Fold this protein.
Amino acid sequence: MLKKIILGIIYYCLMLTPPLMAFDCSLCPQILKKEGVPVKEGRCTSYPPKVSTSVLVCCSNNCQKVLSKQSVKTGRVTMSDGAKIDYEVAGKGTPLLLIHGGDTIVRRTPYSTSDFKASASWESQFQEFAKEFKVIRFDIRGFGKSTLVGQHPIDSWAWKRREDRTVTDVVELLKFLNIPTTHVVGLSIGSGIAAQLAAYHPKRVNKLIIASPWLGHSLSFSSAHLRNLNPLKKRTLLIVGAKDASAIREANAAKRRGYNPKREVIPSASHFSNREQPTKFNHLVLTFLRTKPTINKLYKQEHSTTYGWGKRPEQFGLQEGEEIETFGPHTFSLDSRGNLYVVDTINAKIKVLNDKGRYQRNIDFTGWASDIITGRNNELFILDNDSLAIQPVRGNLIRSQLSPKIPQVEGYGQGMRFDNAGNLYLCQFQQCYQVGVAQKRNVTKILPPDKQMENIKPGYPIKGNNWIRTVWKNNHEAVIEIMDEDWALVQTIPMKTKDVFGMVGFLREDDKGFLYFEVERITRNNYVHLEIWQYDKTGRHISITELPNDYYSTVYKKVFIDSKGKMSQVVTTPNGVKSVTWKAAYIQIKGKVKNNRNNSLAGIKIKVPLVTGAKEVFSGLNGDYDLRIYENKLPSSFAMIASGKDFLPVSKNITKSNKQNDYVINFTMRNIPSNMVLLEIEPTIHHLGDGHFSGAANSQFQQRTEGSTYTKAFKINNAHLKFPKAEIAFFVKGAQNYHNIVNINGTQIGYLDSSPSNGSFGNITFNFDAHLLKKGQNTLEVKSAHEGSDYDDFEFTNIFIRFKE
């Protein structure tokens, strides 16, 4: 007891006294490891029976900073042109790349590589960020310890038709470190490198932080580069110091050209804000990186059918008792027509239900059947203990022996898959063994048992000859790993929950490339939530759908995803077996954006204005876009708008169909002609009226009313006034019969009263004398017709004036 008191007094005194001048805290990690003293979050958590003075000093507050530091891996990699790049890596988790600026140790001309702080300028961020992320910092060529080949980046860096050599260095470094995607923070010249990396290699950038942009460089990109950057705008943060006039000028210039990501200003900071205000800088970066995208629940129940327990043809068998496990149908599959095949082990049948869940027939089958899948010709492949049974559409059951060396464990994690070529694999513990060979995507041969161990893959097959698996990290984290055919890591996607992961398993990749995972999430009340997590090709988390998880009996396969992304369940209940199908609760609008020369356009905004807020996306590098909107938020007919800098906006009408959830809408963009004036560069939808309306034609609108009158000022120049005639065009819905007046500079030129009678949007144009217009400011006025106590309700968008000879 006395010994503990004395040690406590010594420890307390050491905590209160200044650091011992002769003691080097950097030795503490080795000392504590040798003495067997565990450390957590910079604190010693327990002590050995005999405690040395050095241990007590290391465990005091004096050395806590050293103990809190993450271990650092250093290295040097040679670039393809011979330059050598020095780097450091610390921490674990999602990768975070830091690209430094031109902060200097000394200022002199001419400068040398050693004059710059280089990656050391991140000292206030490196260890702090490494507590949550796998942080990579490096010396740009010609800075710090990295060598220089060619011109120094300070003298040569710019936006050009091809990426700068410094960006190529980043890509080669990430490949060397086997990092497919990463968050990127760039400052000063580093912000330009970061932005260029995002423009030329968008799949490598998760979130982008541009700090203290370099005037005339970082954001001085062309319209083509802008179109590449805009799709990442929602994942981009711009940080400037309040006293950094040059960075503010650069950011404002980019805003005028159409690039305006979220911006944060650090008070009392100038150019090197990470050094001047590290606490504020770190807070902004970490808050932005921690923020998760909004996850939508995008599915609703399509139909549900229940069949009771019993021996009748449509009923299912059930085994239950006080001392035995309750057991009924435990696996199922769907064919290409949507027919459902449910293994009814107790009744020795496979039940066939149609795509509406209605009973069709029984197929005789005696066996256990831990999994069942359907082939391209709708034949059944049934995994039955040590054999594989094949039931053709016509003919008798065929059985083949499976290798006893393939590990099989009853229950979850076991099943069969087809690869791109149609070859059949038996998968267990995320390892797949080829058991069937295909020709023209049809399985024509089952391999003999001694050949089934020759082709083993490290995950489940997906498109592009790639393989996918989930790696468990801890109760709250898992990682999706995508590998190529040589098992090299292509992409990683983090999965996180504040609760506890009970199970994470890959289900399917659908025809559109979306990935689906079955997740069991355990909350504090020990309830196991069954969820389907959906990701897109880039690793973006698209949706979470929670499904019923109150199963009455043991079930191995709970969810099936078909090639279109539709979900099916077979749920056992005390009253019987329920077949449930879940369909998308949204409509998907996708397509391509091109110019009139048929070239793909990136960075074009595709927008559907709605009362709840506009739903919008930007076209990607190849011109593709993909927009998903809840069905119940959309009118039966609605307008969508494509717009971009220097392009004439395009409006299109979509009329929903009960039989359709997917729409392909392509846009062709044309440059704004010199004889045309746009009243809105980026059009929105305007709703006039009093908000009281009825009738099929105008009973649903996209926006709330903004009153009975719309007024818009626009400018005309001398070149326009040379034309004698002009026409004005509107895209209109719900304007019929009533005389909704259109005035230009106080003169009536027509009525908006002839939009399509089916309630869709249509074009209405009016010709008028161009002499009604004047140089400088002019005014358009649209008035809702007033009859009795009622104002006519209608909507319009995309107004422009064209001058004609």
Q: What stands out?
A: The CA atoms of residues 530 and 548 lie 7 Å apart. Confidence is low (pLDDT under 50) at residues 1-22. The domain at 585-672 is CATH 2.60.40.1120 (Immunoglobulin-like).
